[in-house]
Please model this.
Amino acid sequence: MKLRDFLIATAATVAFGTTATAEILRFSSFEPPVAHVTKNILTPWAEKVNAASEGTLDIQMFPGGTLGRNPAQQLKLVEDGVADIAWVIPGYTPGRFDQGTIGELPFLVPNGTVGSEAMWSVYEQGLLTGDYEKFKLIGVMTSFPNAVASTAEVRTPADMKGLNFHAPGPTMLGAINALGAVPVGGITGPGLAEAISRGLISGTFTQYGAIETFRVGETVSYYLDMPLGATPMLIVMNQAKFDSLPDKAKAAIDQYSGKVFSEDFGKSFDQYVGEARERVLAANDITEIEPDEALTQQWKDALSVSTTEWIAGHENGQALYDTFVAAIEKASAAN
Model:
């Protein structure tokens, strides 16, 4: 190549950017590529950030456990540098991000939109510390609240007594214990249907999105529609990796992260759960139970100890609880 041609090619590369100069970031998701969160939230986010980065970033999705199949290992993938970004369910790694388990308290989070807005607000106010400070947080969210999906009919709190029951987080497992059931942890979403079909558990606290994604609808017969705690969720990035990026790349990530990501995630998640509900009920023989006020009050009374114990068991528990409740009320009024 002549010197003149080389200089022209070099100038074009600098001016317009190419994938050859882009920093590749690996984004891990334990979900299949066609599942809602991965397909409709995470992948579009990566595409928007890539476009905004002006050629400095190439965020590549690795869905379906390509980098690591176990949902409980997603956080470690980021810590070890196997993945740069990952979707993390803190409940799968008990003791990590413990303050965020406030989102699991029963009768507190009404939907994913409000829960996610409130959770980001609490984080932004500096009340989520410890592990939260070790990562670049792309989003801090909650799911739509979990209800009771079971093989046996569960209507009253007394119906739970003696049943082996699963929940996706430690606070919800504590609620199961308070109901006189046997809390069973250590089962991630992909293993739920098998655990139920084998009789290892009689049911789980979950919502229709997870029921559809993990084919739980084929194994349960009842769904008691009651907000018994949401699932806290995070999108985390390796902090050192973020710090090493050029300014344009950092700015692109920040543009679509934080408050805007958390709020968009919650709205999309709620819409999906509503659509999944229709599909699950149409495809499976599930009796949906809608409690009246009296029955709801029975559950509130039976589970009130969960809130009391959570506050007592956390440093600044009362302040964090009060702040989260205020954030829930503010987000509810805005939506």
Summary: The chain has two domains: 20-142+231-272, 147-230+286-334. The two ends are 61 Å apart (CA to CA). Residues 20-142+231-272 form a domain with the D-Maltodextrin-Binding Protein; domain 2 fold (CATH 3.40.190.170).
